[in-house]
Amino acid sequence: MKKQLFFLVAILSLLSVTPASAQRGRGGYGHSNSGYRYGGHSRHSYTPNMYGGLRFGLSASHVNSDAPYLDGGNTQSGLNVGAVVGVQIAPSAPLFFESGLLYTEKGGKGSDHGDKFTFDLNYIEVPLVLKYSAYVAPATAVEPYVGGYMACGVGGKIKDFGQRAAYNSFSDGGFKRFDGGIRVGCGLAYEMLYAEIGYDFGLANIGDDAFNDTHNGAFFANIGINF
Question: Which of 107, 104, 121 is nearest to 70 (CA)?
Fold first, then answer.
């Protein structure tokens, strides 16, 4: 948990330096270089800007646990792929609510009495974040965001190299399927192109052992397009 709090403070500190005075807008979603435009609508007939996007990227994950054989260890790499949709929630500011559906691979590595093991935790994930879009150059916006995520485990294997055996990650006394937590990150949009980095702070106890708390943690980096 100390590691998670350190990463949270570091990322929030990074996001806080985003220029508040940057020109406002969002590439391709009813913006102009001088700020937001509203298509000639009056405030009583305002139609919010919306966008969709595709995402693909990589993650580096681990777990923090009270159980010594699970805590820390080497990170496990995985894939992220999915789609998102965002809608402007404030007519006077470029503030968006973004959600979507993602397939993401998490997990970790550890050892128990000298025997190494790995575990894959594959989820269908729903992000729920607030995103602010601030222009820093023509057609280029920096987009810090904060919020949460919910996820359901759909597959994965625990590989015990000492016993030369494999088990389903979400059965046989492995891990709980539900996960959820805090998501923070920052994106960069140029025209239709998009890139982002972020971190998931798992808050749900994913361990099947009732006496130990076990939480996911994952860095991720995605690229994609917005339309």
Answer: 107
